[in-house]
Design goal:
With about 325 residues, this protein is of the alpha/beta class. The chain contains eleven helices and 15 strands. Strands 7, 10, 11, 12, 13, 14 and 15 form a seven-stranded mixed beta sheet that branches. A three-stranded antiparallel beta sheet has the order 1-3-2. The protein has a three-stranded parallel beta sheet with strand order 4-6-5.
Length: about 325
């Protein structure tokens, strides 16, 4: 059994990719896996099947590998949870919810000082992440949900989605969101109203993600019906995935973060709106460990420096408690 059930590291060695890339492939459903105890295991035959499927076309591995190989440099014990809700209680497992690369940096910093802590990673989008925090399914949520009526990020959503629960929201950083288009922008896309053009096909993010909420709010305020947008129902679950769709000519435009397209060739970024990415915890947890450590890390100069090195982040308000 040990010969046929492989750990994430053994799979990474076979495919010659980073261990985080293996978790990305599992999360996307490209590499079936099983949970044995607290560890993810992949049947050796599934790895061989994956190699056979991608023998002639392997853009996803290359793109995901290049997008995830930089952080974290010291790999913590991270296990992704792709299912909509995490069936676990908040005990010895510590679950951080979110999809952004800044969380890889945060977990790396956290693991350096506490390698006994079992850190788990949920890849739920912003909306579902806050809901999971409300239900006690995760310890930490992150969000970049834009309220078009208030023209603010996250606070109004947390107030409504966590009624009666004192909450602390800390700014991780600001980043730019915009359109991914083919190099040279051959369709001449400049704004939100271009999405309803007959000659434009888009690729979308999944419901509940901050990117999807931003798009839907912009469409609502612009009076554009989603039914009139070609490709609106074509969903992918990461910035890299939608950028790849544009690069491969499967779509003319997608919405994502500035950093999300940098590892995908042939794609150009058109900035549309700065956004705020925030961390959310129960206020009652703020003085407990490891929550206190997390807040201290985000406010540290070393964390800000790593974010700036990663690129695409404004750290002027990083570490500030905004609510």
């Amino acid at each position: 059994m040990e010969d046929i059930l492989l750990s994430a590291q053994e799979v990474a060695d076979m495919l010659k990719i980073a261990r985080n890339t293996v978790y990305e492939l599992i999360k996307r459903g490209e590499l079936p896996s099983s949970k044995v105890g607290k560890q993810m295991r992949v049947h050796k035959q599934e790895v061989e099947n994956y190699l056979s499927r991608t023998k002639n076309v392997s853009p996803s591995v290359a793109a995901i590998a290049s997008a995830t190989q930089d952080y974290p440099k010291t790999q913590p014990n991270i296990i992704p949870y792709p299912q909509p809700f995490i069936e676990t209680t908040r005990g010895h497992e510590f679950i951080i919810c979110g999809q952004d690369t800044s969380l890889d940096i945060l977990i790396s910093h956290l693991s350096i000082n506490d390698d006994m802590l079992q850190i788990y990673r949920s890849y739920l989008g912003s909306y579902n992440g806050i809901y999971a925090l409300y239900q006690g399914r995760v310890n930490v949520a992150t969000s970049h949900l834009w309220d078009g009526d208030q023209n603010e990020y996250n606070v109004s959503y947390v107030k409504k989605m966590m009624p009666g629960i004192p909450t602390l929201i800390m700014r991780i950083g600001e980043r730019m969101h915009g359109f991914y288009v083919k190099k040279g922008n051959p369709k001449g896309i400049t704004g939100w109203k271009d999405l309803k053009r007959d000659d434009i096909i888009m690729v979308n993010r999944e419901k509940g993600s901050g990117t999807r909420v931003l798009l839907d709010e912009k469409l609502r305020l612009s009076g554009i019906r989603c039914e009139n947008i070609q490709g609106y129902t074509n969903e992918h679950k990461s910035h890299v995935a939608v950028a790849m769709a544009v690069s491969q000519g499967l779509a003319d435009v997608a919405l994502g973060s500035e950093a999300g397209h940098r590892k995908v060739g042939g794609v150009e970024f058109l900035p549309m709106q700065p956004e705020c990415y925030d961390l959310i915890i129960h206020k009652a947890d703020a003085d407990k460990q490891p929550y206190r450590r997390i807040l201290d890390i985000i406010g540290s100069s070393s964390f800000k420096r790593d974010l700036e090195t990663l690129g695409g982040y404004n750290t002027s308000e990083t570490g500030r408690i905004i609510w």
